[in-house]
Amino acid sequence: MTENNTGHYLETELGRVFYQVHGPEDAPAVVLTHGVAMDHRTFAPQVEALKDDYRVVTWDMPFHDRSDALDKSLSFSAVSTDLLEKIITSLGIDEAIFVGLSLGSFITSKMTLQFPERVRAEVHVSGSAMQSTYPKLLRAFIPFISFILRLLPEGMMADTFSRNKALKEDTVAYLAEAVTQTGKDSLIHLMCEMMRDMTDGLPEPPEMPRLIVYGDHEKPFVIKASKAWHERLPGSELVEIKNAHHIVNQDNPQAFNQALQAFLKQL
Q1: How confident is the model over 215-234, as pLDDT tens digits?
Q2: Which end of the chain is least crowded, N or C, by CB within 10 Å?
Q3: How far apart, in whole angstroms, are the C-alpha atoms of residue 10 and residue 219?
Q4: Which structural domains are found in the chain, ordered by start?
């Protein structure tokens, strides 16, 4: 493990992974995983709200911001889950609450399935259940979707992507910057990886405390999926955040933080 002036790098055979740690070392751990074409800054409002009472870990998944890209022949989600487990192990964290946004929600689900003893609770933000496998036919369309996306100018892709996931102008600006930093080629690769994961699906998760959050301006299919997921998971909580889109925690950080802190205090 190496350290720079604002964070740490986990050195692995696959490349370097950047992460930050905030808060007391002996406090309960909360691990925050961003979405596609985002980075550790996604959860800045939550770090400020939690760092006095929790040990808060944020990180850049491979291909994002300060972390290295992966060999594209490898499974992004499988490798990312292993890398996240290595990060918390390096920090001496035995158990944590895992919070995942969008793609980060899927990584959170995989953490529970691969390392159930490390997960105290899950928080899913703008995510969806991966247990209901999407049509296998979707795989056949991945090359076509990739081809169409490559026809879009990079600036147009960043603007369209960000404005379809955020309401506040500063959130839109952050996401457009992060998308540009990720790069068009990596973004398309990650989107295709997500579609492959959606068709593969996951087994049913073990029962544990779960919070499912979505914004009231979210795409209807995500809202529908969040509600259906909540109904299937015993003991889960469902919260709709007003005046928020996909990046709920930045569009309305006050309401999101209240919901998250209330859930954490119950544990």
Answers
A1: 999 999 899 989 999 998 88
A2: C
A3: 36
A4: 2-131+203-266 (3.40.50.1820)
